Amino acid sequence: MDIIVAENLKRLREKHSLTQEALAEAWGVPELAIYKWEAGRLPVEYKMLVRIADFYDVTVDSLFIDESGENRKPSKSDKVSFTCKVCGGDLVYDYVAATCKCANCGNKWSIAELYPKYARVIATINKASRILNSNSVLASADEAKLLFKQAMNECSKIEDVISSEIIKICNDGMAEAEKLETYCRGKYFFDNRSYKSALKELEKVSGYRDADEMIRRCKRQP
Description:
The chain has ten helices and three strands. The protein is mainly α and 222 residues long. It has a domain at 1-71: Orthogonal Bundle (434 Repressor (Amino-terminal Domain)), CATH 1.10.260.
């Protein structure tokens, strides 16, 4: 869990002269959970962060800002993994699916849920991926590339282990978008019976979608 969030939870509670017991009763959660949240030993789910922010009349984003008002910029060596909040087992991250799963009990959470600061980035990546998977036009490839660049720019402001992995996913997405661009050019030439030009483009993306079938048909043309 982000240590700044943990520190802010404790600071806000003390600022309002509240005990962990009082908060547990007000929020309907175990007192032990609040203790672990403030100790940075247990992640706070996004829905709970929203409730906490509303309770203290602050924004969710402010929970990720230190007392000096500066956004925390952790080093790349910061530990971002933690144990399962159900059984204490190790969590295994699937950055492509944007989830993490307990290796022991199998419970699964979205990275955006455990790390709300990544929610917008992951939503952007998911949108770009949907565009690539559902459309086969140049405009879609361009739009997806812009979205991946946007996500990369957001991650570059955070600079931790998770952001590094997400940037790798964005780079893979950019490569996929460029492959789609090449495929679309080849298909355009193919549909207009410019078979030599089509073959030149499609051979660059052999194995992609139905490129191989078009390549075979191009080679059969006189």
